[in-house]
Design brief:
This protein is α+β, with helices and mostly antiparallel strands. The chain is built from four helices and 13 strands. The strands form two sheets. Strands 1, 3, 4, 6, 9, 10, 11 and 13 form an eight-stranded antiparallel beta sheet that branches. Strands 2-5-12-7-8 form a five-stranded antiparallel beta sheet, with no helix packed on it.
Length: 236
């Protein structure tokens, strides 16, 4: 006869396995979803404008792709990483957890033709502690960084907890989602977007705000941050 304790242990282990990060369900696979991070390796990623992966800046730990804090403030993107593949129209989902006072971001429409990783950015930030948040809502978590602010009632979870995010690009239509709620929405090439860019730090960047087939980038801002469940579909 199997001990109830053994049975309970098996059940708990099974539940833990089922809840493990970085899964794709059979339905998701059938629908065209793919993982950009397998939870075990850095396969599919490399340094921005590099062929290798910056292992001194990032580590795979407990099913997360985590940035190692430099302890020296802003690292100015020296360890930014990009996907090997490029994307144009897509539905991207990811989870992130930021350390107290931390700053990072996920960028899309990334091209290596520019001097640096200047692109559209889904801001990842500790709104309560990082100075960027005090500059304005257009630099707070889930914003189109420095261009468009997120909804005032965005459902941001406390530092240390996981946030679920989404970037949807369909034609010229772009959306940012946070924990199940749409918080940013814009149209590429629209007068409204052009006006917002004209007021931003990107106003003099040629082609900024234009759709292109680009890489997905995870930002090295020098702070501790972790990502998991990074998945994408290009299926309409």
């Amino acid at each position: 006869m199997i001990s109830p304790i053994v049975v309970a242990t098996v059940v708990l282990a099974s539940a833990a396995d089922a809840a493990a990060p970085n899964p794709l369900t059979p339905a998701e696979k059938k629908a065209g979803w793919r993982l950009l991070f397998d939870g075990k390796t850095t396969t599919g990623w490399r340094g921005f404008k590099k062929t290798d992966f910056p292992t001194d800046r990032w580590v795979v730990k407990d099913g997360t792709l985590a940035h190692i804090p430099t302890g020296a403030g802003d690292s100015h993107g020296g360890g930014d990483i990009v996907t090997v593949d490029r994307f144009s129209d897509f539905d991207l989902r990811f989870e992130w957890r930021i350390a107290p006072g931390g700053n990072s971001g996920l960028k899309y429409f990334v091209t290596e033709d520019r001097d640096g990783p200047i692109a559209h950015e889904y801001q990842v930030l500790d709104d309560a502690r990082h100075p960027d948040a005090k500059v304005g809502t257009h630099r707070q978590a889930a914003a189109f960084y420095d261009v468009l602010p997120p909804a005032a009632d965005k459902p941001l979870r406390p530092v240390g907890e996981w946030n679920e995010s989404r970037v949807l690009v369909k034609g010229n239509h772009v959306e940012h989602w946070l924990n199940g709620r749409k918080v940013v929405e814009y149209e590429l090439g629209s007068p409204e977007l052009k006006a917002a860019i004209a007021k931003s730090k990107f106003k003099d960047v040629a082609g900024f705000g234009t759709k292109l087939s680009g890489y997905i980038l995870l930002q090295d801002h020098g702070d501790e941050v972790a990502f998991r469940n990074i998945k994408i579909t290009t299926t309409p």
